[in-house]
């Protein structure tokens, strides 16, 4: 579904609209500016409506488990609340949002202004992510063109329509197109009118956008990332529960999800011992939060873990795998190498050795692909290990439980995203 | 591995559906094949040992499922041979729609048995012809730079009716492939006039695109009445959605004039290179050359007939590598003999989709992207 000027349109109408998107943008720019205050008020109204349970049936109808749906809605309500958004602006702009700074003895003023028009190319990697990307653009006063991901479920358009009901001015600032990325001509048309292209997706998507956008268009990349846990010393069961919780809550699908665990050791026996211990915890936690039954997913996970098991007959590795009554088919694979890899996902993780003195050498090559590390260690080692991870591409050091938890002002992949959607304007009178 | 009597008798047996008559032969050939691989493939022997399987456990057909089953994923990640690789006459890879490819190699004797089996199988289904035939291959042209199994299968099948001409939907450019819509169209019109039968061979999705295009343009030609459509593999290839086979064959009849009874649908896998043909009721029947076992998606143990699970096979065809017991990525259900109500009385299976996570949403870096960043 397409959403232009607050109106739902079919693909044919939307394509016609794309033909004169320039004029529509000019109209919006010449009209009333959209202030952060108005956007926040609309988001807060939506947050309250979400909090009242109004959308729960909608998520349940999509086949999401009640516990998960409630959790997701509570999180969305929290992130759209006035307090949260105001705190975000305060932290991301260091109290300078909406302020005019005076320099040069009063002759120069500096202030934050919107970049203008943002073109969001959203990946379908999280429910409602496209809408959240647009909301960031709205908060910073920008006009937003959104290209929906393939196979979009319509949730983002519903959220944006709700916001428009609360604040009709937003209608002029949102253009949602349901056009496939293969339509290069349309993609160029959308990129052509944008001051910046915001791309969410893997290396292939990012490379495609680099080719698509003209040199005068800024590219803001939110690429795919990988996250893991690092364990030094003897962590408590509670700390490991935290990692297991992240693995089960996110099914390892997020950039911040734990894919595997590095152990600070050279000794493979320690790795297998840890893997066995962690498997018990993961299995228990997984059974408490069952996945919906899906023979296709289960079959794939079974084949992957079973193949690992077969390989362990001739290659040094050890597979701990869930019993038949555990439909999550979760597993832990211990191997002696230290290569960073994505997991099989859906509650399967690797455990590998990585002694402190090899962290830098192993992780440096992954540069910008790294994101979060859950650091579990003795208090006296913490500072030293943090300093080592800080030298790699890692941008977020936390504990297992909080790997994928948001807080207002949490930098996104090491940057304040709202700042990137604005420019610093200097005016000399 | 020399073609021992049991193995040779089995694959040279004339009727591919005489299961009862050949049951002892099958079990004997399986036993021989198992022992051969154990002796000649140390990794395979390790696997059997690790899974606590001994050939002595193999006493009846009911125990066949206990032979440790190897997933296609295993062959995508490991080379597993029971003969020196340089002695293998053919090396093919799977079509590899999901990245990794299997390396499989066949020795001359296994190839001979395979050809004998294929000849008997196709002969039974009256698909061998002496009449010169024009071919339209709905897939890749064979070349030096590609080894995909589908290419070889498509090419191999052109040997069962003498080829006058072969036209390919994807032409070899020397370093890659390019679509050949003009060549295909010209060939079709030429074939229609030539007075010889035509065989269209390849992926259903490619055929769907071709006849869809003809239908859209209102083109309808009449190919020779003995013309045939032989399809195999990838129904989803590039359409992204399942094409209904009956709808496809209707369009084939409308645009090319090939009758429904001349359209055949095969199932095979690179790791299990045996033919299965869909009967008139839409089922793939078990042959005397193999046994079909549908396995539980969690335990990999057999499920009762009619229940959905992972499709796996047992066959003693191959000597060069332990393809004795393999499990595919396909989900299927198997049904008992004599329940299909067609001329074939053996057990049969219906495909029920592929293992995997549909519409997965993730922002984790993919494995291939990480490998690029790896320090070598």
Question: What this model shows, in words?
Answer:
The complex is a heterodimer of chains A (429) and B (376). With 429 residues, chain A is of the alpha/beta class. Chain A is built from 16 helices and 17 strands. A 7-stranded mixed sheet of chain A has the order 2-1-7-6-5-8-9, with helices on both faces. Chain A has a 7-stranded mixed sheet with strand order 12-13-14-11-10-15-16, with helices on both faces. In chain A, helix 8 links the parallel strand 6 and strand 7 (174-177). Chain B has helices at 5-12, 19-40, 42-50, 72-77, 108-124, 149-157, 181-194, 204-216, 245-256, 367-372; strands at 70-71, 90-92, 104-106, 133-140, 163-172, 177-179, 198-202, 228-232, 263-269, 272-277, 284-285, 291-295, 309-314, 325-335, 348-354. In chain B, the strands form 3 sheets. In chain B, strands 6-5-4-7-8-9-10 form a 7-stranded mixed sheet, with helices on both faces. In chain B, strands 1, 11, 12, 13, 14 and 15 form a 6-stranded mixed sheet that branches. In chain B, helix 1 crosses helix 2 and helix 1 runs parallel beside helix 5. Classes of the chains: A alpha/beta (429), B alpha/beta (376).
Element-level helix/strand string of chain B: HHHEHEEHEHEEHEHEHEEEEEEEH
Largest sheet of chain B: 7 strands, mixed
Q: How much strand of chain A?
A: 15-25%
Low-pLDDT residue intervals, each spanning 5 or more residues of chain B: 236-241
Beta-strand residue percentage of chain B: 15-25%
Overall 3D shape of chain B: globular
Q: Could you report the average pLDDT of chain A, rounded to the nearest whole number? A: 93
Level-2 CATH architecture of the largest domain in chain B: 3-Layer(aba) Sandwich
Estimated radius of gyration of chain B: 21 Å
């Amino acid at each position: 579904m397409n959403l232009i000027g607050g109106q739902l349109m079919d693909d044919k109408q939307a394509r016609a609209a794309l033909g004169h998107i320039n004029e529509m943008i000019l109209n919006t720019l010449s009209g009333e500016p959209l202030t952060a205050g108005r956007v926040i008020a609309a988001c807060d109204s939506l947050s309250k409506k979400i909090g009242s349970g109004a959308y729960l049936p909608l998520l349940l109808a999509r086949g999401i488990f009640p516990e998960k749906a409630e959790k997701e809605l509570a999180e969305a309500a929290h992130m759209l609340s006035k307090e949260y958004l105001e705190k975000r602006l305060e932290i991301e702009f260091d109290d300078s949002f909406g302020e005019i700074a005076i320099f040069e003895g009063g002759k120069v003023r500096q202030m934050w202004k919107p970049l203008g028009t943002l073109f969001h190319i959203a990946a379908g990697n999280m429910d409602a992510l496209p809408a959240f990307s647009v909301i960031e653009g709205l908060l910073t006063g920008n006009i937003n063109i959104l290209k929906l991901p393939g196979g979009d479920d319509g949730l983002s358009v519903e959220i944006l329509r709700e916001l428009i009901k609360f604040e009709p001015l937003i209608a002029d600032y949102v253009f949602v197109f349901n056009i496939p990325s293969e339509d290069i001509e349309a993609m160029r048309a959308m990129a052509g009118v944008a001051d910046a292209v915001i791309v969410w997706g893997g290396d292939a998507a990012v490379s495609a956008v680099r080719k698509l956008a003209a040199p005068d268009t800024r590219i803001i990349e939110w690429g795919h990332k990988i996250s893991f846990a690092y364990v030094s010393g003897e962590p408590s069961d509670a700390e490991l529960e935290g990692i297991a919780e992240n693995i089960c809550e996110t099914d390892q699908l997020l950039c911040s999800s734990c894919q595997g665990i590095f152990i600070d050791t050279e000794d493979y026996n320690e790795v297998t011992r840890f893997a066995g211990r962690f498997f018990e915890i993961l299995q228990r936690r997984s059974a408490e939060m069952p996945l919906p039954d899906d023979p296709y997913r289960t079959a794939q996970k079974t084949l992957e873990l079973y193949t690992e098991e077969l390989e362990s007959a001739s290659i040094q590795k050890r597979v701990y795998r869930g019993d038949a009554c555990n439909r999550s088919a979760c597993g832990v694979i211990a191997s002696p190498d230290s290569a960073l890899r994505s997991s099989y996902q859906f509650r399967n993780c690797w455990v590998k050795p990585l002694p402190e003195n090899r962290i830098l050498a192993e992780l440096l090559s992954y540069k910008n692909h790294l994101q979060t590390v859950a650091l579990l260690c003795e208090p006296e080692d913490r500072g030293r290990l943090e300093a080592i991870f800080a030298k790699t591409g890692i941008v977020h050091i936390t504990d297992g439980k909080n790997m994928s938890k948001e807080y207002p002002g949490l930098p996104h992949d090491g940057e304040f995203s709202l700042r990137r959607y604005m420019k610093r304007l200097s005016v000399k009178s | 591995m020399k073609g021992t009597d049991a193995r040779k008798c089995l694959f040279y047996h004339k009727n591919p559906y005489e299961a009862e008559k050949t049951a002892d032969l099958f079990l004997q050939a399986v036993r021989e094949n198992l022992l051969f691989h154990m002796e000649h493939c140390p990794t395979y022997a390790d696997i059997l040992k690790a899974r606590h399987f001994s050939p002595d456990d193999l006493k009846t057909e009911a125990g066949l499922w206990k032979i440790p089953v190897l997933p296609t994923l295993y062959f995508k990640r490991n080379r597993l041979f029971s003969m020196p690789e340089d002695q293998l006459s053919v090396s093919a890879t799977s079509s590899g729609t999901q990245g990794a490819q299997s390396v499989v190699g066949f020795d001359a004797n296994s190839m001979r048995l395979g050809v004998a089996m294929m000849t008997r199988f196709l002969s039974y289904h009256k698909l061998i012809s002496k009449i010169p035939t024009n071919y339209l291959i709905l897939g890749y042209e064979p070349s030096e730079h590609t080894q995909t199994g589908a290419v070889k299968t498509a090419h191999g099948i052109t040997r069962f009716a003498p080829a006058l001409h072969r036209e390919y939907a994807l032409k070899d450019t020397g370093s890659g492939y390019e679509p050949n819509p003009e060549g295909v169209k010209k060939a079709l019109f030429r074939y229609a006039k030539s007075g010889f039968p035509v065989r269209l061979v390849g992926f259903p999705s490619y055929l769907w695109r071709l006849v869809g295009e003809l239908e859209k343009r209102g083109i309808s030609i009449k190919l020779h009445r003995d013309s045939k459509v032989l399809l195999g593999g990838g129904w989803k290839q590039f359409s992204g959605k399942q094409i209904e086979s009956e709808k496809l064959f209707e369009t084939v009849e409308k645009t090319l004039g090939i009758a429904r009874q001349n359209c055949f649908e095969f199932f095979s896998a690179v790791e299990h290179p045996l033919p299965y043909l869909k009967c008139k009721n839409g089922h793939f029947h078990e042959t005397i050359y193999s046994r079909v076992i549908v396995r539980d998606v969690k335990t990999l143990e057999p499920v009762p007939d009619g229940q959905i699970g992972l499709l796996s096979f047992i066959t003693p065809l191959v000597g060069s590598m332990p393809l004795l017991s393999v499990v595919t990525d396909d989900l299927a259900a198997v049904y008992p003999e004599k329940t299909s109500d067609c001329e074939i009385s053996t057990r049969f299976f219906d495909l029920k989709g592929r293992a995997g996570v549909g519409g997965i949403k993730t922002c984790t870096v993919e494995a291939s992207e990480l490998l690029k960043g790896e320090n070598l």
